[in-house]
Design a protein that fits this description.
Thiol Ester Dehydrase, Chain A; 5-stranded antiparallel beta sheet
């Protein structure tokens, strides 16, 4: 079992002007950017960044993304974005949660599913390769 502290990462973001619409509400597509920033920090916990993935011979495309918008994010709001690995044996599932910094109210929840893609063989794998399991400490 991997170290549970490493399974999660959290970032703090202040919603910038360029992410909001004329009502000063974050455009729905910008949420994915926030998830991506948190996911990158999470993968850095394992020294398995996107560059390290490619160097290891694998890509990990997202094949599924689900978002539940609970309450809108607004201009200058400080938010916490948490990313947590919940599955890794056959696919990489990362769950996300966005909360308000002040109230800790849950504002958004989501998940992404990624699968390993062998660059040399040009094929999707149906189990996570040993490099991911080694990085997570579950080999």
């Amino acid at each position: 079992m991997p170290d549970s502290d490493k399974l999660s990462a959290e970032i703090k973001i202040t919603v910038p002007f360029h992410d909001v619409d004329s009502a000063q509400v974050v455009w729905h597509g910008r949420y994915i950017k926030y998830f991506e920033i948190a996911r990158n920090k999470l993968l850095d916990n394992f020294n398995y960044s996107h560059r390290a993935m490619e160097e290891s011979g694998y890509l990990w495309p997202i094949i599924d993304l689900r978002v539940k918008y609970i309450r809108p994010l607004v201009l200058d709001q400080e938010i916490l974005v948490n990313a947590r690995i919940t599955e890794w044996e056959f696919r990489l599932k990362i769950e996300y949660q966005i909360r308000d910094v002040v109230t800790l109210e849950k504002l958004t929840k989501a998940y992404t599913i990624q699968v390993a893609y062998d660059i040399k063989k040009n094929e999707m794998l149906y189990a996570s390769p040993p490099i991911l399991k080694n990085a997570l400490g579950v080999d």
